[in-house]
From TrEMBL:
Residues 80-145 form the J domain. Residues 100-119, 476-512 are annotated as: Disordered. The keyword Glycosyltransferase does not apply. Residues 488-505 have a biased composition (Acidic residues). GO terms for biological process: protein folding; response to heat. Pfam families: DnaJ, DnaJ_C, DnaJ_CXXCXGXG. This is DnaJ-protein scj1. A zinc finger (CR-type) spans 213-298. It comes from the Eukaryota.
Amino acid sequence: MHIVVLRTLPFLTNCDPAISSRCFFRRHVEPERLDIVKRETQVLAVDLIVPPTDREDGDDPDVAAEVASCHYDMAPRETQLYDLLGVPSGASTEDIKKAYRKKAREHHPDKNPDDPNAGEKFQEMAAAYEILIDEDSRDLYDRYGVDGISGKRGGGPGPGGMDPADIFAELFGQGPGMRFGFDFGGPGSRPRRTKGEDSVIPYNVTLEDLYNGKSVKMNMEKEVVCCTCKGSGGKGSAKPKPCANCEGKGWTFIQTQIGPNRYGTSRAQCGECGGQGEKLREKDRCKKCKGQKTVKEKTRQEIFIERGMSDRQRIILAGAGDEEPGVPPGDVIFVLKTHPHSSFERSGNDLLTTVHITLSEALLGFSRILLTHLDGRGVHVNSPKGKIIKPGDSIILRNEGMPVHKNPDQKGHLYVILEVDMPDEQWLKTVDAKALEAILPPKKAEMEPKPAVIDEVPFEEGDIVDVRETPFAGSNFFDHGFDTQFGEGDEDDWEDDEDDDDEHGEPDCRPQ
């Protein structure tokens, strides 16, 4: 047995009041049950693990003296990673898995194409999940916050002896220390920066732009290092002093409401020093940059939209982003956003369009310019004689699709749906109806055998929109109720089957 002191009341100054508060003080616990006790009692950490003693109740005087000298940490407990996944700090492993799967579906970048920060948010959740799903790293985080994860305060490295900051850098392709907005530095430190922040700019393009290619020049404004103070922010040899508000850390703890009667604690950039951890006195600040170390400068940038580029593709101008003292500038990233086209639809390197032809063209064929392409060319098509075209038939125009990116001499295909326009009543008045009937295929004969009961119903034109808007069997008439039966349910009802014992991923089939 081990005697453990559980840190349940962070506002206490020593261990004695915990005895009267009945907070699992000096409790005998098997080592393998420590984690369970912490989860069940919502404790903050295990402050002290005392070796086994011969005294049954742990009242050894030496132990009591050691316990009495134990002081509590006044810092509030961090819950930022739990808040990202929307779970309480005492959540089970299964609850964390379930919450992560649900959040991942909601916030996946592919489902949020209009949010330039969707990728970063998704990676933050993934990083939080990787920490909380591992018992060792979760224990360190529960005890010391992200400081414990980075190996500070005696917490040691993460699983496998590696710093989780470096583990996630490999997972998500970021530099060490750049952990999706999490600070993996210790007390008094600020996040390690390997480069300035990237600027992500959505840029609207047309399908013609992507088909033909385009060069765009634009005026932009960026931050550059102040040439007067060389990025120090101060006059001459003036030196900044540690920020009193954050004690030089660059961040402070804040409490945010995450639900009814639920509050979480996380780190936020210090508002006094802007996350720098240090400040200059106003009289010592550089006159040009006002102590900000950077100034705004207008620049002219040019981007090349290459033929065959796709929607949401990125154009990166390396090093064209805002400058910061001591680190290389970030990148400017343009994300292409394609406007819907009035005539063409794109699927990969293929195009789809609809062309209307007359009844005579459908019956007798045609030889004409069928459409105008995205580059302004007319596309002439000959239909074979003797081939009747039915409404909705499609043809393929090979090598008339989108250029292949990086290989524009190759193209996809253009698919054309042919819609047959019927003549109107005015045309019918100009022709001999009997002569027309004689050359057209015969009318359909009455069905045989005839039904026993036949009702005469008037012919009346209607609008299919009226039918589509009519509720039917709890759903849209044309949906056949599929949404109600199989889709659009509560996402909690849909779970990924996970069987840790099934290493080969075979389905678990059971008779119904």
